[in-house]
Amino acid sequence: MTAQEQDMVARPSALTFDLVARCTTTKARAANLRLPHGQVQLPMFMPVATQASLKGLTPKQLEETSCRLCLNNTYHLGLKPGQKTLDAIGGAHKLQSWPHNILTDSGGFQMVSLLKLAQVTEEGVRFLSPHDGTPMLLTPEHSISLQNSIGSDIMMQLDDVIATTSPDHARIKEAMHRSVRWLDRCIEAHQNPESQNLFCIIQGGLDLDLRRECCREMVARDTPGIAIGGLSGGEAKSEFCKVVDTCTGLLPEHKPRYVMGVGFSEDILVSVALGADMFDCVWPTRTARFGNAITRFGTHNLKNATYAYDFGPVEEGCQCTCCRPPSEGGLGITRAYIHHTAAKETAGAHLLSIHNVHHLLDLMRRAREAIVDQRYPAFLRSYFSGLYAGDKTKYPEWAVEALRGVGVNLLADD
Ligand SMILES: [Zn+2]
Fold it and tell me: Among 168, 186, 287, 337, which residue is least crowded by beta carbons within 10 Å?
């Protein structure tokens, strides 16, 4: 019996993870992840549909970007439409008419970040209702109950999240241990382990010893997938890379690894080289609302006057619905049109969201191909060269260093 089979006997899981290829230089992996609502390919980017809708996009438009796994926020869905409505309609897939996979967060992070008066105790997160100010409590049990009602394919444990930049080491340590205790309560409360996958979340701030201890504790609890949490909160990128690298070194090969809240193209590609598989971020849709187009040659603000008479597509050669010409079934949107609508009409932001989400999904598809073909180091060099117009002096030092650590010299010529 393989280790994977033993795990499946040990604890029910609603996913299968098949490693397709491993980069022989870096720690990058390509895998197939089969979830209750279909198979997805790793590494992958997951767009965030906060209120069961990606800002500005219909589920059909999201599907056309090739997205097969998106995020919903438990906190928002728990408030509106609320658990009763979710139970009545049969979950979030039916609510938004989305036939593909959904991942939900625990709701804890939203509370701590959105509500000023949120307070963490051993019992859970105490907060005042944003509707009427009544005191409320989000416990691990309540978070899991909500996620069971949502019916997400991947659900996240409630964890105690502290900013990595916090100077309070004792509090970071307490939060790590509490997150482990809360995972036990989440596992206990989970009603549907045969149809919904609960992921644990590694905490421990920037303290690598705490991260190592947390990895050991979480891995022993044998959840179907594992997340690395608490990052992307303003810490130095070099510290971020050390945490990801340290954690992936201690995680089992045969489980998906999700680095939460990471979405910049460079951060994702470096994290993939460090052995991570899954990423999410609001960046592609949020930045679209400011008129920013994400391309292979960097992020361009189409509100800039230079685009007023630019009749090329948002990104040359892009196969998204927005950029493809009408003769190929697309909308044939020009930079000039986005320039014209970006500040005035929401349509401009919607079109750019389609492009930006497609761009990141396509970037991951190309990264995966490179891993399978054993040319990921060259892919990284080519990508950074495009992003910085071939000027190696502009490459961020943290990326150069992190990749050097896994055997890639970003500054070498191919
Ligand atoms: Zn496009």
Answer: 168
